[in-house]
TrEMBL record:
GO molecular function: GTPase activator activity
Keyword Transcription on entry: no
Coiled-coil regions listed in the entry: 28-80
GO BP annotations, alphabetical order: mitotic cytokinesis; mitotic spindle midzone assembly; Rho protein signal transduction
Superkingdom of origin organism: Eukaryota
Alphabetical UniProt keywords: Coiled coil
Cellular component annotations (GO), alphabetically ordered: centralspindlin complex; cleavage furrow; midbody; nucleus; spindle midzone
Protein name, per record: Rac GTPase-activating protein 1
Length: 138
């Protein structure tokens, strides 16, 4: 009788473990399917970021090209006697201010737009920044 009770307890334990195993396999299958779906979304997002970055670089190159052209036109207007003669004093000062403020900074090579460039933010950390105290005395 005692052996039969032990066998029954073992059988019930095996049934319970088998149910738990099925449940765990089902959970694993659901999680793996979700992970696969998230990986696909991540791949699409990365591709979209790459496309947008290419568009941004093209737009920035076009902007710099147009700003250079405008700078050349403004410089020509300011230098030529016929150009400055046709412009009033106020117009000349406005053009000078525009050429000095807006386009002077725009012609710096490698200049980025005012938008935040987050492409390498994760590569940098505060621990990577070295601080040299020898310049403090200067």
């Amino acid at each position: 009788v005692q052996i039969a009770r032990c066998f029954e307890a073992t059988r019930q334990r095996c049934c319970r473990l088998e149910r738990d195993g099925r449940w765990a396999r089902e959970q694993l299958a659901r999680v793996e399917a979700e992970r696969a779906a998230l990986e696909v979304k991540l791949k699409h997002a990365r591709n979209q970021v790459e496309v947008e970055m290419k568009k941004r670089h093209r737009a920035e190159a076009e902007l710099e090209k147009q700003e250079r052209k405008l700078q050349l036109v403004l410089e020509t207007l300011m230098r030529e006697p016929w150009g400055s003669g046709m412009l009033s004093g106020g117009q000349c000062s406005v053009l000078s201010a525009l050429a000095g403020r807006r386009l002077g900074a725009a012609l710096v090579p490698g200049r980025r737009s005012s938008a935040v460039d987050e492409s390498c933010q994760s590569l940098l950390s505060h621990s990577d920044i070295s601080y040299d105290q020898t310049e403090d005395d200067v």
